[in-house]
Specification:
- By secondary structure, this protein is α/β, with parallel strands linked by helices.
- The mean pLDDT is 89.
- Strands 2-1-3-4-5 form a 5-stranded parallel sheet, with helices on both faces. A 5-stranded mixed sheet has the order 7-8-6-11-12, with helices on both faces.
- It has 10 helices and 12 strands.
- The protein is elongated.
- Helix 2 runs parallel beside helix 3 and helix 8 packs across helix 9.
């Protein structure tokens, strides 16, 4: 663990540096407040900091205040080293953002114990960050397919619609539906249906460009956002995805289940439609026509599909 040790007294700095190195820490020394702040404001800041309170500007307390104002997920555990013994001074240091303090002249065993407390706090905080990240991912992800779930993909649709309003770059939206999906469930059971959903989701993700966004809209339907894709490119990608899925055979119970999809394509261009919901309805109308024309095909939204209620 990297520990910043800041003290303007060369003798104290050397003692602290030697002690911490003997305890297995990687020491980053600083001879005054300015050097200490330079180390802490950078992206590769140490995980812990042992700061002398009384240093040339900025002092230890001011460094704490600055650090907490810019603090992100990479939390720095700060211990103030001070000769001040009044309770009001200690409270002021903690209010400035310090996590702990050590009185001068310090006891080596006490200092080591307080550093160990800091390690435990950082380990606990790191676990919380990892858990929060996992929960955030779970909240946005469809468990079966690993794609974005309905809420997440609709949120991204709103974001891309707003981006189009700023840049004018077109975007196509594909609505994909697995043909005859009910037959898989009725004939082979829901486990087979789940296998088909997972396989189609994997095929769609693999057939898209790296920056396209794929999500499960619900049931056997998927939504795909194609940034910087006009009508022609959107139709081309949709046909490619339809062909990829058609070549996908899902292994199940000694069989190879053949899967096909129908796709409706709609495009956001020239600031229209004004609402993302209208674009979604246009893609849905195109999908409905693809189903009605025999399935396993792509249909592009017509001008009438983009009508909006004022």
């Amino acid at each position: 663990m990297r520990v910043l040790v800041a003290d303007d007294d060369p003798g104290t700095l050397a003692i602290l540096e030697n002690l911490l190195q003997s305890w297995g820490y990687l020491v980053v020394p600083a001879r005054d407040g300015e050097e200490a702040w330079t180390q802490l404001e950078g992206p590769a800041r140490p995980q812990m900091a042992l700061l002398d309170w009384i240093m040339p500007d900025p002092d230890g307390a001011e460094i704490c205040r600055r650090l907490r104002r810019i603090q992100g997920h990479d939390y720095v555990y700060v211990i103030l080293v001070t000769a001040r013994t009044r309770k009001e001074d200690v409270a002021a240091g903690l209010e400035a953002g310090a996590d702990d303090y050590v009185m001068k002249p310090f006891d080596a065993d006490e200092l080591r114990a307080r550093l160990k407390v800091g390690e435990r706090v950082l380990a606990f905080a790191g676990g919380l960050v990892a858990a929060n990240n996992m929960l955030r991912t779970m909240a946005l992800t469809d468990e079966l397919t690993g794609l974005l779930n309905r809420g997440a993909i609709l949120g991204r649709l709103d974001e891309e619609h707003a981006r189009h309003g700023r840049t004018g770059v077109p975007m196509s939206l594909l609505m994909v539906d697995i043909d005859h999906f009910k037959d898989f469930n009725d004939t082979f059971g829901h486990v087979a249906g789940d296998s088909v959903l997972a396989a189609v989701g994997h095929a769609l993700r693999g057939g898209c460009r790296p920056y396209d966004v794929v999500g499960r809209y619900g049931g056997e339907e998927f939504l795909i956002l194609l940034p910087a894709a006009d009508d022609e490119l959107g139709h081309f990608i949709a046909q490619r995805l339809r062909h990829i899925v058609e070549q996908t055979h899902v292994p199940f119970d000694g069989r190879r289940l053949r899967v096909m999809v129908s796709i409706g394509s709609a495009t956001l261009r020239g600031g229209l439609p004004k609402r993302s919901e209208t674009l979604l309805r246009a893609a849905d109308a195109a999908l409905y026509r693809a189903k009605g024309r025999g399935r396993n095909r792509v249909s592009v939204a017509m001008e009438k599909d983009y009508r909006e209620d004022d």
